[in-house]
Design brief:
By secondary structure, this protein is of the alpha+beta class. The protein has 2 domains: about 170 residues, 3-Layer(aba) Sandwich (Thermophilic metalloprotease-like); about 190 residues, no CATH class. The protein contains 12 helices and 20 strands.
Length: about 375
């Protein structure tokens, strides 16, 4: 029998996050390891009267691709991907890695070449999402790989993950509607200000936010969710920041990242682990050295780092900064083939100030 929490998560993805409607086309992306959730989502999309298109990948597909593909194949873009970005009404993507480090042996320049080739797809999807003609959501299906990265057993991680998604609630759609109120309240409070200052051990950073919109994230694009974000003024970022939580990006773990900004651009960067890969990311293109996002986490059901940014960036009491592309709906104008999030933990000695007024201290909101 299917885990009722899997069924609830499918209901959230279809009925709440993407609000799939009759006659619409919905892309369902996932791997064979996520089959129980893919099947549950497929069933709910049909019940909504929509037309599901399943794109299923197999275990080890990514590493085979990067090992065997020629440069021409890395630069080739599938017509299905082009159609999905330009035409599909909805997209539900499910990550289910069975080995989160399988790409660690792939040369970084091969990954960045592929990112550059598909950059226009991300831009098109962002543009359509901003104008309201495309709805998308990304989630995970618990696997031993994610559990191992989070230093939990699979059962512990399942309980942790489904709770973070509110999939263990008797009324999961209603639970997310209730949870969205706090995100909207905080986003409304901060909007219209001029500057955010972040201070923490190894961090003193100022970011301009004048004229930018803060977007409350309440489960429409990520599941689990819980943050509000904007695109900082591109040339405004000044100071230094240390990121306290490690992350696995492109199959490589980076940890202890330190960045220094002048006039909005990273002028110095280092990491205790994965520094070479970090520099490769920064050198992807001109926009990769500027911030595309400032996000503030609000999900206190996620109380520890997991090495997966989908969860870690939502931790209540943290902020995350993304190098690279901005989301157009925030007013951000930075363009890049990358969007790399890293998390700064404010729960032990951190402060967030907005135009000199305290927003958060030691991870607790003060407004």
């Amino acid at each position: 029998m299917i885990d009722p929490r899997v069924a609830n998560l499918a209901r959230i993805l279809v009925g709440y996050s993407t609000k799939v409607g009759e006659g619409e086309t919905c892309i369902i992306e996932g791997s064979t390891a996520a089959e129980p959730l893919v099947a549950a989502v497929y069933e709910d999309v049909l019940r909504a009267g929509a037309n599901p298109v399943v794109a299923l990948s197999f275990e080890g597909q990514s590493v085979t691709y990067y090992r065997e593909a020629t440069d021409a194949q890395l630069e080739w873009v599938s017509p299905l991907s082009e159609w999905a970005a330009a035409e599909a009404d909805c997209r539900i993507a499910i990550g289910a890695d069975t080995n989160t480090r399988q790409l660690s042996g792939v040369a970084p320049e091969r990954q960045t070449k592929r990112q550059a080739a598909t950059r226009h797809l991300m831009q098109k999807t962002m543009e359509r999402a901003a104008e309201g003609s495309h709805r998308w959501v990304y989630t995970l299906y618990p696997t031993n790989a994610y559990a191992s990265d989070a230093e939990m057993s699979l059962r512990e991680f399942e309980d942790f993950y489904f709770h973070a998604c509110l999939a263990d609630d008797g009324d999961p759609l209603g639970a997310w509607k209730r949870a969205s109120d706090e995100c909207h309240r905080l986003a409304e409070w901060i909007e219209g200000h001029e500057e955010v200052r972040i201070t923490a051990p190894g961090t003193d950073l100022r970011l301009g936010i004048a004229g930018r919109r803060f977007i409350p994230c309440d489960g429409e694009h990520n599941m689990p969710d819980g943050e509000f974000f904007t695109g900082p003024v591109e040339d405004s970022v000044e100071g230094e920041v240390s990121f306290h939580l490690p992350a696995v990006i492109g199959g490589r773990e980076i940890a202890g990242v330190r960045l220094r900004f002048e006039a909005g651009k990273v002028i110095d960067a280092g990491a205790e682990r994965g520094e070479e890969f970090l520099i490769e990311l920064l050198d992807t293109d001109e926009g990769a050295r500027r911030l595309g996002e400032l996000g503030i986490g609000t999900n206190y059901g996620i109380d520890r780092g997991t090495r997966d940014v989908l969860l870690d960036e939502k931790i209540g009491g943290t902020v995350h900064l993304a190098l690279g592309a901005s989301y157009p709906e925030s007013g951000g104008a930075n363009e890049s083939a990358v969007h790399t999030d890293m998390v700064c933990d404010l729960r032990r000695g951190g402060r967030l100030e907005v135009d000199g007024e305290l927003l958060q201290e030691d991870g607790k909101f003060a407004v």
